[in-house]
Every structure is written in structure tokens, then in C-alpha cells.
Specification:
By secondary structure, the protein is of the alpha/beta class. About 15% of the residues lie in helices and about 45% in strands. It has 2 helices and 8 strands, in the order βαββββαβββ. The chain has helices at about 20-30, 85-90; strands at about 10-15, 30-40, 45-50, 55-60, 75-80, 95-105, 115-125, 130-135. The strands form 2 sheets. The protein has a 4-stranded mixed β-sheet with strand order 1-4-3-2, with helices on one face. A 4-stranded mixed β-sheet has the order 5-8-7-6. The radius of gyration is 16 Å and the shape is globular. The chain starts with 9 loop residues before the first strand and ends with a strand. The mean pLDDT is about 90.
Amino acid sequence: MSALISGFHHVCIKTRDWERTLAFYRETLGFREKLAWNLRATGRRAMMLDTGDGNYIEVFEDPDYAPSPNGAVIHFALRTASLDEVAARVRAAGAAITIEPKDVVLAATNGLGPVPIRIFFCEGPSGEVIEFFQNTIT
């Protein structure tokens, strides 16, 4: 890793439904509020939610936001050691699971050999695509 870059910091999403989005990330996934502020230009709310280990989801309130079908962020992946438990919580919260939990073996091209992973995908409250990723190598 570059000496200038020390890892993932945050992914930013917009939401029309502030309360629903915060409930999903705080109550369903257990993220903690780290920093909240109002955007200077609009006065709308913004927040950084700690996903663990100093990684964040940043949320911007935008009542006029309409998610594009294939935005610039294809998806973001959250690391977990309890994928099936997370899937149950996501399902119970009413989020659409778009790819059910499954085992996949990645054929690494950098000498690691076969890399077993377990994943599932869901749609977050603002249309964002979230991958949940469990493995022991990365």
C-alpha cells in the first residue's frame, strides 16, 4: 500500500429518507454515529457512521435525490465474520436481498490459489447496492 494511502475511509451515499436510512445502518447493521453536521450550502444533514476499524459510511440528506440505476459506485462491500447472521438482520429489516448468501471460490491470478469467500448482496434504503463479504484472506 502507498505510504500516502492508509486504507478505506468511507463511501458516501445520498438519501431522500434520512430516518429510514439511519435506522437501517444503525439498528440493522449496528454502525455508530461518529460525526454529524449540516452542509453549509444547503443546511441539509450529513453524518459519518463508523462501520468498525475506522471505516465509515457517509450519508448526505437530499430530499430531491433520485437514485440512478447504475451510478458511479457499483457497490460497496462490508467485511463480516457472521455473514448469515447479518443476512437474517437485513432480511428482518425488510431490505431486498438481491443475491442470497452463497459460497464462491475466486480463482486468484496473483499466486494465492483458490480463495473461498461467502457473500450476499442487498439493496439499501436509498437504492445503494451493498455486498457483505466474509473470508479469511482479505
